[in-house]
Amino acid sequence: MIVGTALFSSPSRGAEEPPKRPALPYTVSKETTFLTEPLRPDGSVDYAEAINQRIGKGVTPENNAAVLIWRAAGPKEIPAGIRARYFARMGIEPPNEQGNYLSDLDSYLINRKPPISERQREKAWDQLDIAESRPWSRNEFPLIAEWLAANEKPLALIVEASKRPRRFDPLIGDSGDDSSLVAALLPSVAIYRTAARLLCVRAMLKAKANNLAGAWDDVMACYRLSRLIGQGFTLIDTLVAVAIDSMAFTATGALLENVQISGEQLERMRQDIAALTPQRRLAEIIDQGERLFFLDCVAVLAKQGLSKIDAISGLDFGRQSQPSMRAALMDLAGETVIDWDHLMRKGNRRYDRIVAALNKPSLAQRRVAMNQLRDELTDLRKSAVDPESLFADALLRPRQAVSDRVADILIALLVPVIDSIVLAEDRWVVQHEVLATGLAAAAYAHEHGRLPEGLDQLVPKYLAKVPEDTLSDPPGVSLRFKKPDGGCIIYSVGRNRRDDQGRSLADAAKAAKAAEAEGAEETAGTNQNREPDWDDIVIRLKAPTVER
């Protein structure tokens, strides 16, 4: 009976056995793949799904700002082939193909009826730059006013979206459900930039009409959009968030400089700025986001072959600049089993060092550490494409040599140059300090009927302490304060870490335009025709002109 049962339960030779999962050419572990779940059917880590699960946790169609953003923008930015999956992941139906959707200035002007000339379009763009920086009227810039009016309904949805606490735009590739993270699209970033620009321009229009409450509502919506897109886990999300925050900062500065603001409104502005959530740290973005892009690239190459390096990196690796190196590497890789675990470990060590550098307590320490990493990366990019050293190493230890070289090339191609982005993050922090200090000085001026003589007069009633200018070199210097022409300037030195006497990027652009208007083009080829590199972060206040 036992034997009979055993025979009956044993599969016959002709019975179909379940297919075996093919072995991966690398090990799934914390040291190699960094993540060990979620896994695809073939056992590889699904990095896009991992990020989607992390960002999407606790998100619903009711609290997700992206739902309203897409209702305002329409689906055209998302390829038709992934549209259904994209919106299904958000728990909604795709918006209709046609509708009254958000349009950027170019699209509006090109499709305008009646049409306008290219010269008129160029003039409109110049006007847009001005309309972002100061109060303006419909009569002054009628095309910009038309563009705003055309976007009225979508902007209402954008403002509503900005009040939601979460933003989840799923990472979905355009080559199937199991596409790699590097194939995932970021279709919403341009929409956020367009929306932010519209909000700041509309705020300046409202300010001109003495609708300060409405103007501030639009500026705050812009600040909130910055925080929402900053919830993403890519460097692109972070850089767009920084750009949008800078737009809102410029608009706030324009209100403080050009509009008489009541004490009640100033208090509201101060409370709103203080209540903004902090931005996600760059160290977290690199550790939990950009690292995964690198590892996913390695995993794809391990599965599909080194010849896919061009498509993965987005570059034409060596085809033009280093054909001999490329040929040598491809030949050796074809004959050698690459140690993909080694590549992943080496990449992880590089990202570990970047994260450690970003977590150092002061900007000065971060800059030293990041400069060292940048110099190493520069040297690596030179040595990685040297075919002679590759052949020499390959004679003695072919697998190790080829694996090392592929790792170096991928690090050189895919690891971002972070040192400049570090300054962007610190500029973001200092910008907030300059803004809070400017609002405190405006509150002091309203209460006392005069501007402060120095930032120390704001302590302790308006500020707990005078903020440090953490961009300053050497460190330990407070934010700067100057009182020219009856007003005052509160500023930081900016990314160039040089005191430009309170002159900002906007001042540099104005100076360049003024020089051009005065015929500076005749000095082409000389330093006189170059735009100044001023970049102080500035808030300007005028002396009070009304009684308290």
Summary?
The protein is 56% helix and 2% strand. A 3-stranded antiparallel sheet has the order 1-2-3.
Structural class: mainly alpha
Q: Which sequence of SSEs, written as H and E, runs from N to C?
A: HHHHHHHHHHHHHHHHHHHHEEHE
- Give the percentage of residues in beta strands: under 5%
Main sheet attributes: strand count, strand direction, barrel closure? 3 strands, antiparallel
- Summed over residues and divided by their number, the pLDDT gives a mean of 86
Q: How many separate domains make up the residues?
A: 3
What is the strand arrangement across the widest sheet? Answer: 1-2-3
Description:
- There is one protein chain.
- The protein is mostly helical.
- It folds into three domains: 49-276, no CATH class; 284-310 and 324-423, no CATH class; 426-515 and 532-542.
- It is built from 21 helices and three strands.
- A three-stranded antiparallel β-sheet has the order 1-2-3.
- Strand 1 and strand 2 form a beta hairpin.
- The radius of gyration is 28 Å and the shape is globular.
- The protein starts with a helix and ends in a 7-residue tail after the last strand.
- 39% of the residues are buried.
